[in-house]
Amino acid sequence: MKNIRVLRVVDGDTIICKMRDGEKERIRLIGVDTPETVHPKKKKEYYGQAASDYTKQVLENASIILEFENELRDGYGRLLAHVWVGGNNFQKMLLEGGYARAVFYHPNVKYQSEYKQYETSARNRGIGLWKQ
């Protein structure tokens, strides 16, 4: 789905977008998990604010492309998607910067091996979540 406008960033891995039909949708990024900042039952986690700030910096008010897989929604009713901004995979950007962990839930595993490699690279460089 092309040219979707990001209206608001909820946290590092969840955004709200205006869809082509004018409806607002909450989008959960497939394949990544950033530390919590707004979970109703959890405290803010280490590096969560940095991940949220990074997502805001890159995606807020941006025009994005959503790439869907097999399962379209999670148990909370959020759309599940890979996000492309400026020709770049945003999940890759989060992982390479050490802002997220790679996580997968079948059947949405298209980029599993690549995402794991990006996380490993950040971990080996000791950046973001992986600072020693």
Automatic annotation (TrEMBL):
The highest taxon in the source lineage is Eukaryota
Thylakoid listed as a keyword: no
What molecular function terms (GO) are annotated for this protein? endonuclease activity; hydrolase activity; nucleic acid binding
Is-annotated flag, keyword Phosphoprotein? Answer: no
Looking up SUPFAM superfamilies in the UniProt record yields:
Staphylococcal nuclease
Annotated TNase-like domain ranges read 1-132
Record keywords, A-Z: Endonuclease, Hydrolase, Nuclease
Q: Which InterPro entries match?
A: SNase_OB-fold_sf, Staphylococal_nuclease_OB-fold, Thermonucl_AS
Recorded protein name is: Thermonuclease
